[in-house]
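In full, the data.
>
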Amino acid sequence: MGCDEHLIPLVDEGLGNSAYLVDLGDGRALAVDPARDLRALRAAAAERGLTVAFAADTHLHADFLTGALQLAHDDGATVLASAAGHRTFSHTALDDGDEVDLGGLTLRALATPGHTDEHLSFLLLDGTRELGVFTGGSLIVGSAARTDLLGADRAEELARAQYRSLQRLSMLPDATAVWPTHGAGSFCSAPSGAERTTTVGAQKAANDLFAAPDEDAFVARLLGSLGSYPAYFERLSEINRRGPALLTTAPGLDPLTPQQVRALLADGAHLVDARSAAAFAAGHIPGALSNPLRPAFATWIGWLLPPDVPLVFLLEPDQDGADLAWQAAKIGYDRLAGQLDGGMDAWRADGGSIDTIELVTADRIGTRPVLDVRQDAEFTAGHIPGAAHRELGDLGADGQAAADGAVVMCGHGERAMTAASILARHGTRDLAVLVGGAADWAKATGGRLADGS
């Protein structure tokens, strides 16, 4: 088997993850780390005339709901997962060294704890030849996935387990392909970069963690690279252990009248405005959360909003409500009340009140206070001198991070508008959002960015 033509990576740019579909050569396929949003996987299988016969999960995912159970229900797929995960639904429970005959190819389970306790890597074999290894959150391109998802008190213990797991994987032949789940854009600690697959030899040569002289140095490097992660990560692994609810119909958004929207909001629902940051600035429903529909949409829903409160959405006419609903569903947000039918035009026609937020370019900040809501690493790499800093994910705690009249900024403007909408909801007045980011400020003013915290 030549894996290049038989393995199909399916990249979720928003969550920074990859699932894989392997053509087993007899009309059947293996899916590895499939997400609940199976649209791309199903399209790839249909294009090749494949039926998914096996669905393997490398670990109890924290950043998305597994689609393995749905594949078992819909396609009759056999679910393969770690026995140590104690999943409560029907599956083939695998221990270290167990092998599964895929019909010509073999899948061997390798215990590689670290990212999670029960983590498995899956070595794909053609006879005795190692074709590649699905490494999940153990070995990833340029790093290894975070080890603090089970609590800060266990992060070092699991980092040491991760060290041993990478040492084990390094014993595979250098030419062995490495197919990780987590990649650039994942909050599971993947570094930036376009490459999502690699080889064992390439990682031994270029991955900084392999260059660590000993276990202690490895642990220090790995733990030192960890930033914050979305709040919903703390919920999904347990849902994946029990098995996500099966979807009997594709998720979508029902149309709502302005009167229905008002009633839902009065009863505690949250309103999410999925239009562009510029459209939100020009006019939005008071109290709405700005979260432009883009690949990162699901991350910020899961970071900023509770999963058990109905959500109402506002979209532009050309935005895809079905795509929005799928993004919410893949992280377990199923309480979607619907979308305002007719959008802002309907709201205006019904006499609804409207708020605005000023957009400013870098040359118009003047002496206004600046709040930078990027991640810690982004802020440290270069920021406007004197800017205050609070990560967007932390704003929901009190919404009091900025003074009246502040300019809120991020890298481009989307996260800043989300932050401004949170601050405005908590009573901060006269806010503005910077169009662009720190580099635009430096270019417009000739100023020099500060670095460090």
Summary: The chain has a mean pLDDT of 95. The first strand starts at residue 7 and ends at 12.
